[in-house]
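Hello Y.,

Per our agreement to keep a running log of every chain we model this quarter, I'm adding this entry. I've kept the format consistent with earlier entries: sequence first, then predicted structure.
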Amino acid sequence: MQSLIISAKNQKLAEEYVQKICADYQIDRFDIYNAEEEKGTIGIEKIRNLQKKLFLKPIRSKVKAAVIKNAENLTLEAQNALLKSLEEPPDNTIVILTVSNKDLLVSTILSRCKIIELKEDDAQLPKNEISQYLDILISLRSYGIGERLKLTQDVGKTKEEALLWLEKMILITRGHLIETIEKNGSRFNDLNLPAGKAGHFSKDGFSAYQHLSLLISLQKSYVILKTTNANPRFTLETLLLNS
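Predicted structure for the entry above:
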């Protein structure tokens, strides 16, 4: 039927919006299935169990809903397992994901869903932080191995610090990618060209393709660190040494 992403910093507001959708479709509570977190993650078994329920007939309603709250906590395996269900949900089923920021989900998830951003909760970084993270983004291409390792040492001391740094870098990189496309008139097809061959570049020397590749790598690193016991510094080193 359809797949939705509800993006809002305030998860209570997102949950209220989910309730509104279910009310609009007159979905009884017995026909609402949830994938719950366990120890801060939503694993592939939870998604497989949810998928089995997608093909059941609604009990008391004409339409049923499958709800995944805090979808940023989906493991990479769980996100990949979910793709088919998001692309082709059953005719009588709505799949709803709530997330604090849509950019924390991998692009393959985003491309299969209608995205609803609750503007009331849009959060912007302070100007000094925007400048700080933009400087890192612009300088990253010229960083040597030593500078990249020093950066991971500074921002990867704890899991919480690393996650916060990744989240802010995702926001800055996405914004810079959009700015690059708008200012230079990049076509969507430019994003599919190999690195160095896309026709439009921003002032930092990155092509739109390279910005997109970095954004995807940042998102994947965030998911890995958020949903596993991976070492934060090692995760960041793998990211930055391969970017």
